[in-house]
Design brief:
Chains A, B: This is Pyridoxamine 5'-phosphate oxidase family protein. 2 copies of one chain form a homodimer. With about 150 residues, the first copy, chain A, is of the alpha+beta class. The first copy, chain A, has a single domain, classed as Pnp Oxidase, Chain A, CATH 2.30.110. In chain A, a hairpin with a 2-residue loop joins strand 4 and strand 5. The model of chain A has no long low-confidence stretch (mean pLDDT about 90).
Amino acid sequence: MQELIDLDREECEALLRAGVAGRIAIATPTGPHIIPVNYSVVDDAIVVRTSPYSLLGSYGRDTTLAFEVDQFDYDEQRGWSVVARGRGDFVTDIDELDHIREVWAPQPWVGGSRTLYLRLRWTELSGRRVGAGWDALSRMPARRSL
Amino acid sequence: MQELIDLDREECEALLRAGVAGRIAIATPTGPHIIPVNYSVVDDAIVVRTSPYSLLGSYGRDTTLAFEVDQFDYDEQRGWSVVARGRGDFVTDIDELDHIREVWAPQPWVGGSRTLYLRLRWTELSGRRVGAGWDALSRMPARRSL
């Protein structure tokens, strides 16, 4: 059995900014959903590309969203997770879209028309790790790189 | 760019039943949350152990929950995910608790008092994979074993 340790804000941000794929929880008329996404972080917001006809495109605007990224180490039975929460909106302003593409455009693994840029500006950031004595960031499975 | 392929029900169940850790999305008065959990599958339900004072303990009863398990392959830019949705309830019946412990008791990696058994009996099961020509189940990072 391991300890559960809160991550400080700096650690949360570092892990969040280094990630490539996570999941968004969204409220819909039939209850909560979870959707795996490729994402990028631009300034203090998570940005994902989606379709206007998806769950995120249908219900992701002007509502609170939760985004999660984690890493489980099954052999060692440890891991970490970071959750960012805040209001979702769609980016339509040309200058803002240019800024996103300049900083780090989200790069979906999946093809198809993903014309909608959903942004989650976080107002709440929290993270936890299971187990002491190891460095979460150095154990990222994939690091964002330019 | 890869294809997005729907998994059939049998594949969803196989992946769900083989997993060890996933995430629950839950509605709370301040919007959706995502909580990483260790889980087990007993009959047609996901079972997790939690504390009565946690988010799941506070808001997980008699409400729709979404559970997700996934695996991302960052090198190949592919992966799969399965989402199970259904009503959450707390298991308090002694015979039902015995049955859960016999079949496969959830084994949290984290210590502490987790006396509450939250059950999600799924009524909706869906899954997707990114990319064709590989076997999701054989690429599970950890398999449940007796």
